[in-house]
Write a structure and sequence with these properties.
The chain has 26 helices and 56 strands. The protein has 1204 residues and is α+β, with helices and mostly antiparallel strands. Strands 19-14-13-22-23-34-33-30 form an eight-stranded mixed β-sheet, with helices on both faces. The chain has a seven-stranded antiparallel β-sheet with strand order 36-35-39-38-37-40-41, with helices on both faces. A six-stranded mixed β-sheet has the order 3-2-1-4-11-12. Helix 22 packs across helix 23 and helix 23 packs across helix 24. The longest helix is centred in the first third of the chain and has 29 residues. 56% of the residues are buried. One of its GO terms (cellular component) is cytosol.
């Protein structure tokens, strides 16, 4: 019997709303309309349904006409992006009011003068006197009367949405439950509680997720209610309204929450891509959804992939979300030619003004490049442009734009070649995004299908597949509206999670009560949505990790032995190794109930093998030449049709470009399948002359290799320092050891690693063999300070005779010995007191890792390393990261040829050099004198030769080395100079050895910036580097002093060693055009960008209690432009520990510039058991007993310009 009702599957996107209507007879109808058209209708989804049902304006929707409406919506995402959510109050533990504002203290753009942090979602905070320790011990219980009074006052002030986030509530929720009860009684209409919203460890991620939930849920609820009332969903026999969640499952409208709505639309696209690929017989798929502003890519290998830690619109989310990687390359991405390079995006022309072809005076975009090349033809595209929406795409304006750009570029290329070059870069950006979710995680995608959807996908499908080595592309007839189609194919899903954090066998033994509780809760949610237990599939997953690491892998629950086997296999696949004899921790438990989805099926058609007829002939430009191309209209070609490219297939919602060497066929399911029929010439015949297009391509490829190395290192390291604080850097070097590309990791490493590589090359000339790997931390032989160990791997040619390049990774080891835990003693006077020296150590000898010798080196020392196993684990991770770099470099050589890769290693350096020369020619001579707390002075004089466009940076007059550890080896000063000039460029250029070519650096021997052995140096890298940076920006008159310190706090004993650096506010300054900017509160600046460990992780792993960490309001230096505010952090110890501070600006205030006021001084005090406060000074070391605390107040940056 046919159900006499309509079903609607809807994707309400940012620009368009797509609808698939299923008629009572089962026929599917596609419909598309603008999401925002307030003059014509109130809501696009409802309007689309009314149009498909043929209802007149104002006519109510008849009861019983609609069965189900399944919908994905960007309402929540847009409210988040535009910061238009509900006014929200945050209620948190006393001392943590700024925990979410500070976050993990790192900045996203390490070379930005003005640091921009995401705007906060909450507008007020209430701190409650409550505290539970990591082990559940209650330090303070909330006073109900006080809580009620505080919340009532905020309710009276108009707040209705509330987020409650208490320390360790994911495991001990009683205080949150009490506060939530009081809030609901008072009348708050939205109460989001962290242990319900995201019952997982990590205060910052869980807190952000809870705030997002409170901020967005009221907006969603209003939208849901509006849609429900207009469709009569609340009436008897009314439509059943369901929404797509970020995790890829549908849920009833009344259960739809803010935290689950962020990826509502894109998740439908992934489900649609997976299900349609399955129907077509493809089990492994890369989803490629290219829209107007961005491209979403996803990976499928048998099951939907989710991540439990994501960042969306600057908000850290701890909730299950589809694993979707978004890159800012869409049809509207703007094309730039600057600094001798072609660049695409990340900025977009949006829907208004849109691309130049849209007749609204917009800029040249990727869409325009396709118009220029004939891949989008005005005659084949709907005429919906111009004031009356009746004109075609404006090809003339596009041609004029590219002609003007070709003239500016001035190297003789035609407008078509310019457009083709931009397209090549857009494709490379998208291919690199796919590599991030696949190749980087150990998957070989060459045997996958590229399932292409979104309005702009078909134009780039063949080229993107070629860039990835994929030979099959699938495009569904609903590809232009596949997200909407996916809504109809999705299951109803209910998930439950809980943190377990116990050893695997112990956790399994105690799992039953938790299993029963979560399973029953998930099943109950399914039952309320009409899915019986018999029709529900329950999946139980454990998120496992190795002891001491942070990366979890989801494994189905069975017995301990089987789970260990699966976990190790997955770990080896993703990271290339497993840990022997290390405990496996059952970190969190997940139950997912699945059912009630539509059975995916599509009709099969008889195949008609007759040759398809072209509607017309056209031509398009591709691969450097014009190609004749027939145009097939999708409506005219039947299943069974086949033809070879080059050709175009025109559909109502998109154009498919079939490139030369590819062929299409229409399958029995009416899908378009593209296959490469000629072998792709992998080694492209590219000249070795610098080409502005390939310059950008190689730039991105070299950078991508360094980033992939970084991901490998982060995932495989043992220590918190590398894995969570991300205190490491990875880079690629040429055969001479000059820096070619680095991932944007730690600035202080990036300009100094090449000296380590050069030292290894010089010390081992003629003796390096394939399979050798070297390690070095020697400050007087290319190193910086002892905790930073650099691991260097040569890349040989196939014959194993010549070294072609080097790759290297530098990690800050948590402890390398020395007189204090953490190897950052403030009291050392010689380098030997700071720890173990690695001076050109052969770490791997022709492929054999000599663990015994490394263990001896770390142990046989007057002050040996305290955790040798951890050092060895981190060194192994660095070796693995380098191996990843070697592997990717080899792939690049195979693709482009050795001569081309080597030529472009030089070209990217030449390009960076030219960018720095352009900055230098705008500078004048200047100097600066910078006094330090230690009584030393850094003198710098910058002399500019404008004709040669060169600068000399002379540190003559700087104080001699002293018997303290603020002496900085010469590579540190080079790193500071490189960083400063890179920042002064103020645009996106690669940072490499070329940046330093136009700069001559003079550092006097024996000075504190070029000390002689055996001077101690540990503070040189972390403190003096910041001083040199401040002095240089002072000389250039660009930026006032930053806090001028990293506030290096170390503590530990024989069992624990921990190191952290603490942020302050960033300084004020001016851009090169003379406009000024304020500093930013609580963020790392200049030579460091290390993360802070999450407060809950810190307390779980170390016997300490974080009492307080907040922003000190109005503490930044004032001026016409004022500095950001600093921080204050108090840690109480629960065991006896050594504690040391290594810092600056405790006696001299960081300077303002151009009349701006100086910043504030910092301080470090110890609170003893008897209440006495002891000042530790800038550099101090002491022992703290259980119950005693250390308090660090950071100095603040200076203001710029006289205060108004």
């Amino acid at each position: 019997m046919i159900d006499a009702r309509w079903d609607f599957w809807i994707d309400r996107g940012g620009t368009f709303t797509d609808i698939v209507g299923r008629r009572p007879d089962g026929e599917l109808i596609a419909h598309k309309l603008l999401s925002e058209n307030p003059e014509a209708y109130r809501d696009a989804a409802v309007q689309g349904i009314r149009e498909l049902l043929g209802l007149k304006a104002g006519e109510p929707v008849p009861a019983g006409l609609i069965g189900a409406v399944k919908m994905g919506t960007t309402v929540a995402t847009n409210a988040l992006l535009e910061r238009k959510g509900e006014r929200t109050l945050l209620v948190t533990t006393r001392g943590f009011r700024d925990a979410l504002a500070i976050g993990y203290q790192a900045r996203t753009d390490i070379f930005a003068k003005k640091i921009i942090k995401p705007e906060l979602l909450y507008s007020a905070v209430v701190e409650i006197d409550e505290r539970v320790r990591a082990d559940g011990q209650v330090e303070a219980s909330p006073d109900e009367t006080v809580v009620r009074r505080e919340l009532q006052a905020r309710f009276d002030a108009g707040y209705r949405a509330l987020a409650i986030v208490f320390m360790h509530a994911y495991r001990y929720p009683e205080h949150e439950q009490l506060t939530a009860r009081i809030a609901r009684k008072i009348g708050f209409t939205q109460v989001s509680v962290s242990h319900e919203v995201s019952p997982l460890i990590k205060l910052v991620g869980r807190g952000d997720t809870t705030v997002v939930d409170a901020y967005l849920s009221p907006i969603l609820r209003r939208y849901v209610e509006q849609v429900a009332s207009e469709l009569g969903a609340d009436a008897q026999d009314g439509a059943r309204l369901m929404f797509m969640q970020s995790s890829g499952g549908l849920t009833a409208a009344d259960l739809f929450q803010g935290k689950d709505a962020i990826l509502s639309g894109p998740a439908g696209g992934v489900v649609g891509a997976v299900e349609t690929s399955r129907l077509a017989g493809f089990t492994r798929m890369i989803g490629f959804d290219m829209g107007g502003t961005s491209t979403d890519v996803s990976h499928f290998d048998g099951e939907l992939e989710r991540s439990f830690e994501t960042e969306v619109a600057g908000v850290r989310m701890r909730a299950p979300m589809m694993s979707i990687h978004t890159v800012a390359a869409g049809g509207g991405s703007i094309l730039h030619f600057e600094n001798g390079r072609f660049r695409v995006g990340p900025d977009s022309a949006g829907a208004n003004p849109g691309p130049k072809a849209y007749r609204r005076g917009g800029p040249l975009t990727v869409t325009d490049a396709n118009v220029m090349l004939g891949k989008l033809s005005p005659g084949l595209f709907p005429a919906i442009f111009g004031p009356n929406r009746d004109q075609p795409l404006d090809a003339d304006a596009v041609r004029e734009g590219f002609e003007a750009m070709a003239e500016v570029i001035g190297d003789g290329r035609t407008p078509e070649q310019v457009a083709d070059g931009f397209l090549a870069i857009a494709v490379e950006n998208m291919a690199n995004a796919v590599k991030k979710i696949s190749v980087q995680r150990g998957y070989d995608v060459t045997h996958y299908v590229l399932t292409c959807f979104g309005g702009a996908g078909g134009q780039h499908a063949c080229l993107t597949a070629d860039a990835l080595g994929i030979s099959t592309v699938m495009i569904h007839p609903f590809s232009g509206i596949l997200s909407a189609y996916g809504m109809g194919l999705a299951d109803i899903r209910a998930t439950r999670q809980k943190t377990v954090s116990a050893e695997l066998s112990d956790a399994l033994a105690a799992l039953r009560p938790v299993r029963d509780e979560l399973t029953s809760s998930a099943l109950q949610e399914m039952t309320t949505q009409g899915v019986t237990e018999a029709d529900t599939d329950i999946q139980h997953r454990a998120h496992l990790r190795y002891q001491g690491t942070d990366t979890t892998i989801a494994v189905p629950i069975s017995d301990a032995a089987a789970m260990t086997e699966v976990f190790e296999a997955l770990h080896r696949k993703q990271f290339g190794f497993i840990f022997e004899n290390r405990d496996i921790i059952f970190e969190s438990y997940e139950v997912e109930a699945i059912g009630g989805g539509a059975e995916a099926s599509e009709p099969t058609h008889a195949l008609d093998a007759s040759v398809p007829e072209a509607a017309e002939e056209t031509r398009f430009f591709s691969g450097g030449e014009w190609r004749e191309a027939p145009v097939y209209r999708r409506a005219d070609i039947r299943p069974g049709a086949k033809a070879s490219g080059p050709c175009l297939i025109v559909e109502p919602h998109q154009t498919i470009v079939v490139e030369d060497g590819w062929a299409f066929e229409i399958t029995a399911l009416d899908h378009v399948v593209l296959k490469r029929v000629k072998v792709l010439a992998r080694s492209k015949a590219i000249g070795t002359e610098a080409d502005p297009v390939l310059l950008e391509v190689f730039n991105n490829l070299f950078m991508s290799i360094a980033e992939q190395m970084g991901v490998t290192l982060q995932n495989t390291a043992s220590s918190v320092n590398i894995k969570e604080r991300l205190d490491f850097s990875c880079a690629v070097f040429d055969a001479q050891g000059a820096l070619v590309a680095n991932a944007p990791h730690m600035p202080v490493h990036l300009g100094s690693m090449d000296r380590s590589v050069e030292s290894i090359i010089a010390a081992n000339a003629g003796r390096i063999r394939p399979g050798d790997v070297f390690a070095l931390n020697a400050p007087y032989n290319g190193g910086t300070h002892l905790p930073d160990i650099t691991v260097v791997t040569p890349v040989f040619d196939d014959a194993g005779t010549d070294i072609l390049f080097y790759v290297a990774s530098r990690g800050h080891h948590a402890d390398v010995g020395g007189t204090a835990p953490g190897s950052m003693t403030p009291l050392a006077t010689t380098v030997d007191e700071e720890g173990v020296l690695f001076d050109n150590v052969l770490l791997v000898d022709q492929g054999r890792f000599d663990e015994a010798a490394i263990t001896r080196l770390l142990s046989d020392h007057p002050y040996p390393a305290r955790n040798v196993a951890q050092n060895v684990g981190d060194l192994r991770a660095q070796i693995a990261a380098n191996e990843k770099g070697v592997h990717e470099m080899r792939k690049m050589i195979a693709q482009f040829g050795l001569d081309v890769v080597q030529a472009y290693m030089g070209h990217v350096q030449d390009n960076a050099e030219e960018s720095v020369r352009r900055v230098i020619e705008t500078l004048g001579d200047s100097s600066f004198s910078y006094a330090t707390d230690q009584g030393s002075t850094i003198e710098v004089k910058i002399t500019v030769d404008r004709e040669k466009r060169e600068a000399t940076v002379d540190f003559t007059g700087t104080s001699p080395q002293k018997p303290n550890n603020f002496n900085a080896p010469e590579p540190v000063t080079r790193a500071a100079v490189l960083y400063v000039f890179r920042v002064m460029v103020e645009s996106s250029i690669p940072m490499n050895a070329g940046c330093l070519r136009p700069i001559r650096i003079i550092v006097p021997d024996g000075s504190m910036l070029k000390p002689q052995y055996p001077a101690a140096v540990v503070a040189g890298n972390v403190e003096t580097s910041q001083h040199v940076t401040n002095a240089l920006f002072g000389a250039l008159g660009a930026i006032a002093a930053s806090q001028g310190t990293m506030n290096n706090l170390t503590f530990g004993n024989a069992i624990y060693q921990y190191y952290e650096t603490l942020c302050s506010g960033s300084p004020a300054g001016i851009f090169n055009d003379g406009s000024g900017f304020d500093g930013t509160d609580a963020v790392h600046v200049h030579m460091t960008n290390s993360r802070l460990t999450d407060p809950e992780i810190l307390e779980t792993r170390y016997p300490v209690l974080l009492e307080d960490f907040h922003i000190r309001e109005n503490s930044g230096g004032k001026g016409e432009w004022s500095a950001g505010d600093g921080t204050k952090r108090t840690i109480r110890f629960l065991e006896t520990m050594d504690c040391a501070i290594l810092s600056s600006h405790r006696t001299i205030r960081p300077h303002g510039l151009a009349g701006g006021e100086d910043g504030a001084l910092g301080s470090t005090t110890v609170r003893r058991l008897d209440g006495r406060l002891e000042d530790l000074g800038g550099c101090g070391q002491t022992v703290l007993e259980a119950g005693e605390a250390v308090c660090v107040v950071t100095p603040t940056g200076g203001g710029y310009g006289s205060p108004r």
